[in-house]
Structure formats: C-alpha cells, structure tokens
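Exercise: predict the fold of this chain.
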Amino acid sequence: MMQAPRPGPHNALTDVGGVRVGHVTRDEPGWLTGVTVVVPPEGAVGGVDVRGGAPGTRETDLLSPTCSVDRVDAVVLSGGSAFGLATADGVMREAYAAGLGWPVGEPTQVVPIVPAAVVFDLARGGVFENAPGAEDGARAWREARDGAVAQGSVGAGTGARSGGLRGGVGTASAVVDGVTVGALVVVNAMGSPCAADGSLYAVRSGLADEFADVPAPDPALVRAHWDEQDAAFEALRAGTATTIGVVATDATLTKVQCRKLAEVSHDGLARALSPVHTAYDGDAIFTLATGEVAAPSELDLVRIQAVAADCVTRAIGHAMLAATSVDRAAEGGAALSSWRDRLTAG
C-alpha cells in the first residue's frame, strides 16, 4: 500500500542524505543580495529545466541528456543578476581544492561541474553595482552544512521580491515509500504568491500541520495591497524577476529522469505563484539524485515527480512566511514588506 507523504525531520532539502546548504547574506548598507550553494554527495546525477523569457544561467547546457557529463559537484543560486554568475567561480575553486570534478587527464586534472542560476535584485539595497562575487560563492561553499536550513531573507533570497512583497529562500521535504525528496527555492517572481483574498496559494498544499499557525489576511490590508499592485505593475521591466531552485532525492535516477523530474517540479511554481514563466522571469529548477535508494519503478517515479512539485510549492510558502520587511528607500533602494506585515493584522 502506498504511504501518505510526510515531511522529513528538518522539512528541508538537507533531509536528502549527504546534501548540504550554505548561505552568504550581504545586507550591509548599500547591499541586499547574497548567494546560496547546494552541495550534494560526490557522484550525484544532475538535471535542469529552464523556463521563462529572461534566464540567467551557467552550465545548464551541460546537463542536457544529450551531453556526456552527468555528475554535479555543486549548484549555485545567486543574487546579482548576470553579475552574480561570478559566484560560481569561487565555488569551483573550493570544489577543485576538495579534489572534486570531472576527470579530463591525469588523476589531479579535474574540472568541477558547478551549474548556476541567478535572480535579479540589482539596486534593491541602494547601490546598483553591489552584486555577490567569487569570494561570496567560496564562503557559501565553506558554510554549507546539513541539518536545519535558514529561510526567509537570507542567501540568494536577501534582495528577493515576489508580487510586490519581500520574497526569500524557502525549503521543504517529503518522505514517501522509503524515498526522500526535498526542494529549496529562491522566490523572486513577477507573479504573486497570494490569492485574491490575500492568502498564500502554497498553504493549501501543506503536509501535516506545517502551515497550521499561518494567520488569516486582514481584508482592509488586502484591498490596499491590490490597489498598490496595480500601480507597481506599470514599473516592471523584462528580466527583473525570476524564481530558481533545487530539487533533490535519494532515489537512483538517470540523467534523463533527472531532467523529467525538473520539468514536473515546475508544476510546483504554478501552484504557488501566478503568473509564472513570463517574459519578466527566468525560472529554473535544478535536480540532483544521490542514488542512495534503489531505482524506482515507472509508476513510483511518477509519484516522486508529483511529490517533488508539491515540495516546491511548500518551499515557496515557507519562503514567504519567513521573509522579514526591509526599507532601504533612504539609500535609494527598495522598501519591501513581508507578507505577514503587509497583509495580516499581526
């Protein structure tokens, strides 16, 4: 009999054995950005699916099922728009120093495989040029740990915005039929995480009681929020949003199956954000399979895909609930209210 999914012990991506997460948060004066690095156990198989009209990515072509490299040493999620892709340079250096990489010659001649994706957060801290770089990426690698994962306005989600609210980093996991699946998402979408009544779409997909204490939106605050959003949409520019993330499982999957897992995981974005995959967004989801559990049957694989999409949805909910308000308007940056501060009475 199939089991009902339940959250893992930390309800986080790190519930997948051997997966570690590290954040570097740059929120000093003039800055609102950062980087998040996901480090899988050695030998993890990777995939990716990129959608939307404005992606900022690195090494995603290499993860195509038609290409030969199938192992991933780390995945980098960064702020800073295309400037932030430089964070992967630092992660590559750290991975190389640890002896990781794809062999290209003698035993010590390896090239670390470090795919990356970025979100747009330029100038939200006040200074347009302030973007994370290689040293921030290297530090995030060194900070990577298992166990509980910090959520909200941290790492790559420090300067994130979603539907006029402050976005951030969120994570969730599920265990079903002996397989663990987890997701970590950086929410920086053009679309809104809120339904018409101000409630978070993602809350409807909660497992157990993970969203039991979420307050109800205040109707007056909801009306004010939507009135402000109508004006805010007029100022949007293509390429100034994006939601990116990583899905991991301990199941044994091929590179083709990792790609399909990434494709289906995008369904989780559509359940938590509206709209998604627009010309303003460059949504990307990476997948990692550690191979600790035997390969699933075809039907079990479909269930893993469905659970992964739900983890993405739930992770977005946790990101929005953990975000905190910030006001950098006096420095020429953004004033971003959290969902809790903007739409609930306290």
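Check your answer against the key: Residues 324 and 338 are 5 Å apart (CA to CA).
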